[in-house]
Every structure is written in C-alpha cells, then in structure tokens.
Amino acid sequence: MIDSHVHLRDGLLAEKESIFHALSLACPAGFRGFFDMPNTNPPLTSPEAVLDRFALAERSIKDAGVSAFYAVYGGLTSDSSQIEKMVSFYNEHFPKIVGFKMFAGHSTGNMGIVEKEEQRNVYSALARLGYEGLIAIHCEKESLMNNSIFNIEDPITHSLARPVTAETESIKDQIDLIQSEGFKGHIHICHISTKESIRLVAEAKKRGLNISCGATAHHALLNTEAYKQLGIFVKMNPPLREKEDQRAVFEALISGDVDWIESDHAPHTIEDKKKGASGIPGFAGSLILLKELRKAGCPESRLEELCGKAVNRIFKLDLDYTVPSNAEIEASLPSLRNGYPFDAFEFV
Q1: pLDDT tens digit string along 264-312?
Q2: What are phi and psi of 263, to 5 degrees?
Q3: Distance between CA 26 and CA 34 in Å, rounded?
Q4: Are 89 and 25 in contact (CB under 8 A)?
Q5: Cis peptide before 95 (omega within 30 of 0)
Q6: CB under 8 Å to 106, separation ≥6 — which residues?
C-alpha cells in the first residue's frame, strides 16, 4: 500500500512517533510508500528543514532494515517569498517532495492559513510561479468552527465544535479559488468526512477540475457513537461524524467518488490524548478498512485503485505497492496494535 497521508513526527515530538518506529511496524504489514505531512516540530516550511528530514529518513530506513519510499509535503505559509523558495525546491527535488500542504483551518501544529484572501494569495503565487503539482488541503473553515464549546469531559462536543459546514464551505472556497486564480495544478482534499463534501468534489471532477479526495478508516468505519466506547481517544480533526456521513464515506470508497485510502496516521502519547490532543494511529485502521470493503463486495480492481494505483496516477509516480490479502492483514494486525498505546478500531 501507498499511504499518502502520515504524521511521523520525530524532532521535538519523537516520543509520539518516528520514521524509524513507524516504518519498522508498517512495512512488514504491507505498506510501501509514505508521504509525510509538514506540521512537524520544527515544521517543514523551508528547504533546509526538508533537507534535514530527507537525511533523517535515509538513516531511519537503513536502521529499520526495510525497503520503503519516503517523501514529504512541503508546508506553505502566506508569505510569497517562502512559497517561491519552496516551489524552486520542489522543482529540484520532486518526487522526494511530492507536493505541498495547506491547512485551511488550524489543526495540530497551528499552521493554518485560515482567511480566504490569504488562501487566494497562495493559489495566486503558485499559479504565477507555474506550479502544476499537487496541493493537499486540510479543509475546515476557521470562521465556522467554535472551539469554545468543546468540553474535554464530553468528547462528542468536539464534533459539534467543528461541524459539517466547516468542511463543506472550505471545500467550496478551494474550488472557487483555483478557478479565480488560474491555478493549473491539482488539489487534493484530505480526509474527507461528509456526504455533502463528497458530492462537491464529484461535481467539480465532472466539470473537469483537477481535484481528488482521500478518506481515512476512522471516517469510513467510525461515527460519533465511538465516543461512547473510547471517549477522548477518538478525537481527531476533522472530527467523527454522524452515521449517515460515515456510511457515505465508506460507500464512496467503493463507488470511486473517493480516490484512495489515507491513514492520517497521527499517534500521541496516552497523556497527550487525555489532555485533548487530536489524532490517532492509523495503519491498523487502513488494513481493517480493506477487510470491511472486501466484505461489502468491493472488487479487487477497486482496491488496487485505493491502495496505490490512483496515487501513482495523480502524483505521476510509479511506486511499488501491493494490496494485502485478508490473511496477510490478520497476520499483521497484532504487531501494529501492540506498537501503539491504544487502538481506535478495537470494536470494529
């Protein structure tokens, strides 16, 4: 499998996760490619930081004794000079840097570019610089979120604080901006979580826009009922949705309206989760999702798309990937689950 959305942390967050630890567990379970997000500490927003990350990854892969393709997304800010430096770096180092990431709302790392006009400036700068690669977007509209209503003692309030409309309106913004600013690249909506969001992306595709979306196991298999079993441990951004949206995500993986599975693998320590950190380990969930899709009659040809074929096509890559069998999944799950402090999918 190619996992196009992971948070392997390291740096000042190495106690949560590291490239070495993640690849030591995930590669034997069938994962072959990892695209790492830039909201690390320090963040991957400069050529120097990304070069350091490349060197760390090379050492980590060697120490882990695995064969893997590791790449990063460069982090974007609203500073045009920073964008120019990163585009130049991308032109020189693709595919080790596979694209860019923009947080249209704040999440872990507080890298949000939250105002629509700031986002407009990003697309305008990328278009002016001739960038035609991929930009992955965390779509949650900051002005439609109300984090003040989140109560850590009642974790379902997280889903109320970051409502469906925050995601859908942010996606509308991105679709509007790529057209108005003449952006010729590809936008990818990360961890899509609602029925309406899927419809918006599908309609944009039909109009010929370069757009895709990915889905996580937690949004495809879990809904707000999971708070009753695991409470704060299933807090993530965007949050869990009601069952109707969860089912829509699952069905869109089969129909093709969602382009691929992405884990959004984002471990935290138990103590950090108890304090409200957003994010969960995702590798086991992706494998469980494959089993559930097979059970629902998803064709193997569609699973090929979800596990690597679509990623290769859209990123213009030719990476090795396989689709694990159910037997291989069952053999891999114990070590994956034992490798992290909790399992959000234990009752699936």
Answers
A1: 999 999 999 999 999 999 999 999 999 999 999 999 999 999 999 999 9
A2: -80, -30
A3: 10
A4: no
A5: yes
A6: 112, 114, 142
- Residue 35 pairs in a beta bridge with 71
Instruction: Name the E strands within the chain.
Output: 2-6, 33-36, 69-75, 97-103, 134-138, 186-189, 211-215, 260-261
Instruction: Please tell me the distance from the alpha carbon of residue 226 to that of residue 232, in angstroms, as a whole number.
Output: 10
> Are the beta carbons of 8 and 267 closer than 8 angstroms?
no
Q: How far apart, in whole angstroms, are the C-alpha atoms of residue 70 and residue 73?
A: 11
33-36 vs 2-6, strand pairing mode = parallel
Average pLDDT, whole number, for the chain? 97
| 135-155 per-position pLDDT tens digit | 999 999 999 999 999 999 999
**Pair 4, 310: CB distance under 8 Å:** no
Q: Using DSSP bridges, classify how beta strands 134-138 and 186-189 pair: parallel, antiparallel or unpaired.
A: parallel
Region 164-186: mean pLDDT is 98
Q: What angle do CA 232, 337, 17 make, to 5 degrees?
A: 70
Beta bridge partners of 134: 99, 186
Kindly tell me the burial class for residue 312, based on how many C-beta atoms sit within 10 Å of its own C-beta (0-12, 13-18, 19 or more): middle
Does residue 28 carry a pLDDT above 80?
Answer: yes
Residue whose token pair is 């097979």: 294
Written as one string, the DSSP assignment of 179-198 is: HHTT--SEEEE-S---HHHH
First and final C-alpha spacing in the chain? 21
